[in-house]
Design a protein that fits this description.
By secondary structure, the protein is mainly α. Helix content is 47%, strand content 0%. The chain contains 6 helices and no strands.
């Protein structure tokens, strides 16, 4: 399907697609071409004819914050026990026991996040075995 600048149907469809995108920001050439069901070079021809302006747009891409992990019952119990001790200003030692992959780190991270959010501090000591791959 060759596009001829004299064929108004391609331009009309592309302009219609651009108007649909108008309220949603700046579409890419491929998004407009896909929505209009025209080849991408039609938009280039429209730009050469002065009907539209194509430009590069740099956007900052910040990684989205992942949704928090849902704690299981044992993790909730552990977080609750530490939270209660902190609320009562009791200094206690807690031992989280579990096999690798059982979710201990998620408990630590959740409690550290809460401590930092409330203006406190946190120190997380990483077992040296976990650093072995970085040192090798």
């Amino acid at each position: 399907m060759a596009s001829d600048p004299g064929q108004p149907k391609f331009f009309a469809r592309a302009l219609s697609a651009l108007l649909d995108f108008e309220q949603r920001g700046f579409p890419t050439v491929s998004q407009v071409a896909h929505a209009a069901k025209v080849p991408q070079h039609v938009l280039s021809e429209m730009a050469e004819a002065g009907w539209v302006e194509l430009f590069d747009l740099l956007t900052a891409r910040l990684p989205g914050r992942p949704s928090p992990h849902v704690l299981n019952a044992a993790q909730e119990e552990a977080v609750g026990a530490v939270r209660e001790a902190l609320r009562e200003s009791r200094h206690r030692a807690f031992l989280l026991f579990g096999v690798t992959g059982s979710g201990k780190t998620e408990v630590y991270l959740r409690l550290m996040e809460e401590a930092l959010a409330s203006g406190g501090t946190a120190l997380y000591l990483v077992p040296e075995i976990s650093l072995a791959s970085f040192l090798a």
